[in-house]
Amino acid sequence: MSVGFALLGLLERGPRHGYDLKRSYDDQFGHGRSLHYGQVYSTLARLLKNGLVEVESEPGDGPDRKRYAITAAGVTDVERWLAQPEQPEVYLQSRLYTKVVLALLTGRDAADLLDVQRATHLKHMRELTNRKLSGDFADQLVCDHALFHLEADLRWLELTAARLDQLRAQVRKENR
């Protein structure tokens, strides 16, 4: 996800301080990956430079605090970004595939590698399922997305384990 577009979208609801944006981002999208304040302010500086946000100062007893507001150009950018479909993430050369092939090329036991990976995936799925049960609706959607991807990985692990002898023979043949 683009942090800049997320911050712009949050600003469409009204002007906010940087720390309010960080909190809203973490609540809506952070889910285990909260933003650092430095990333929020550097992103806001870039958006300001590009004319997508403007600063509203708030005079007070202490130093001036900046509130950021989205500009018309910022709204247009968010609309354009939301209208563009995301390219599906196709994992044609995943690290997991690379590990399996390298294990076979180097004479290691790829079945052990697949078993360890399967156990890791299942553990992570249990954690996500527990998180989903105690989370709000947005957290449930995020967990569902991750769980479906992990399920697809598990199907690939099972298929690869079933075809391991065939893959081993092909790798040996190609490397003679």
Automatic annotation (TrEMBL):
**Keyword field:** DNA-binding
Show the Pfam families listed in the entry. Answer: PadR (PF03551)
Q: Name one GO molecular function term.
A: DNA binding
Q: Which domain of life is it from?
A: Bacteria
Identify the residues that the record assigns to the Transcription regulator PadR N-terminal domain, covering every copy: 7-77
Decide whether keyword Heme is in the record.
no
Protein name per Swiss-Prot or TrEMBL? DNA-binding transcriptional regulator, PadR family
Source organism per entry reads: Micromonospora echinospora (Micromonospora purpurea)
Native organism taxonomy: Bacteria, Bacillati, Actinomycetota, Actinomycetes, Micromonosporales
